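[step 3/7] inverse_fold.run input=structure_tokens len=289
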């Protein structure tokens, strides 16, 4: 392995330590940030994500507000919980763990934009397009944060994003083209003709297509920074299902820096969710002053 490993787990630990000091400063002024979660059903992956988020909160002093509904919950029942958290002064921000099996777009639209810790409500995505300050999507900002902490230049960089999803690909392109990042972005996807033609000239490649091994070693410019965001389930050597990323292992021998999967971008998503909660609490305190 020749590429520098961009360690999301270690960076998450560092960010937690930084945020713990900020949470303590808020507590000194009588403010305790609170993260709310809404979990519908008992999907193992969704349940694990919610538990991990609340463990993170406990470690740094953020209060947990958990709402768990059965898989039989109706749209109206879930939206009633959203309304409750919108009105709860102890809830600084919250998320509805997706998928719910219901109309997720309608649920997202009901979330108070100022309490949207995922940065994915229609209002906040619109603010991103318009350049208005707002909570930003956690996974794209986790990638930006890794770039900053591992000295991956963004100013003027050629970036190729593979994947056009709402949670990563589309918002990441918007974030990278802000003046503060100032990158040039090509947004590709599984329907792109000659994907390698685009990726070979990129200084940074973000693979978020959910297609195992879509990025091969001969598709990467030597020394490029590569982020593996894809998550798929494939059969392992023993026939059991295992998680696979979007990047062929051979890319480690070509890239200059690369994220592992798991252990790379995933922990950074959690780190930026915590950051969004703390920043929301700080904003509310400033507004009250």
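[step 3/7] decode complete -> sequence:
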């Amino acid at each position: 392995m020749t590429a520098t490993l961009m360690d999301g787990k270690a960076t998450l630990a560092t960010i937690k330590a930084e945020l713990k000091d900020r949470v303590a400063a808020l507590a000194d002024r009588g403010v305790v940030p609170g993260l709310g979660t809404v979990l519908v059903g008992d999907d193992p992956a969704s349940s694990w994500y919610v538990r991990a988020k609340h463990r993170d909160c406990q470690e740094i002093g953020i209060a947990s507000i958990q709402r768990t509904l059965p898989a039989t919950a109706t749209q109206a029942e879930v939206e009633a919980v959203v309304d409750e958290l919108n009105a709860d002064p102890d809830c600084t921000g919250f998320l509805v763990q997706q998928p719910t099996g219901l109309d997720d777009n309608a649920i997202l639209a009901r979330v108070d934009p100022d309490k949207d810790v995922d940065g994915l409500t229609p209002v906040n995505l619109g603010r991103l397009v318009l350049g208005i300050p707002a909570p930003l999507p956690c996974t794209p900002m986790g990638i930006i944060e890794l770039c900053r902490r591992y000295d991956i230049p963004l100013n003027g960089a050629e970036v190729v994003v593979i994947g056009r999803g709402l949670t990563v690909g589309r918002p990441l392109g918007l974030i990278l083209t802000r003046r503060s990042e100032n990158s040039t972005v090509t947004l590709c996807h599984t329907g792109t003709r000659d994907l390698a033609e685009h990726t070979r000239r990129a200084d940074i490649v973000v693979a978020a297509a959910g297609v195992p091994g879509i990025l091969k070693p001969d598709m990467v410019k030597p020394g490029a920074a590569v982020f593996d965001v894809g998550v798929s389930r494939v059969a392992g050597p023993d026939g059991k299902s295992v998680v696979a990323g979007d990047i062929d292992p051979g890319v480690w021998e070509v890239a200059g820096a690369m994220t592992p999967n798991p252990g790379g971008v995933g922990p950074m998503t959690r780190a930026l969710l915590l950051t969004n909660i703390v920043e929301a609490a700080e904003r509310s305190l400033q507004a009250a002053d």
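[step 4/7] annotate
The mean pLDDT is 96.
The radius of gyration is 19 Å.
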